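As a next step, the fold was encoded as tokens, giving this record:
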Amino acid sequence: MSRIGKMPVSLPEGVEVQVQENNVVVAKGPRGVLGTTIDPDMTVEVKDGVLTVIRPTEQKRHRASHGLTRALLQNLVTGVTDGYRKQLEVIGVGYRAEVKNGVLELALGFSHPIYFVPPEGVTLAAQTERGQAPKVFVEGNDKQLVGQVAAKIRALRPPEPYKGKGIRYSDEFVRRKAGKTAAR
């Protein structure tokens, strides 16, 4: 049995989950409404503030999607209650990040500034402290969308291994390489 799939998803107060036709699950909470379509073979039960996912058989395909379905439902519930947040650091001399009217403006050593417009449902914030690398915060309710936006921002200037310059996640470790040495 899937260890993740058999764990119940507890619903906090103020969160309402409905299973609609075609296995569309919609969660409503204090931060908004999120929905997803799950595997049509899986059965979702809502009872006494607890969500459980039941698989029909022990086939490999059903066992594989059992834990996935439960994780997707947990992400919905967490998204409508707490939301998700990713933090990026912009490291490099002269590199800047600021948000103007909801648009992220980045100076990353190119001859032009880069403007990043976030999709609907994602908000961006930038923080710059003296002596610290600028930080960019990506926030939203949908875990997949927040991660995708953070990855797109990081891809504008990925961290390089020699000086460590670029955009990286705050918890990311960049392995450094030694540079060239002079011939003797």
Notes: The mean pLDDT is 92. The domain at 84-169 is CATH 3.90.930.12 (Outer Surface Protein A; domain 3).
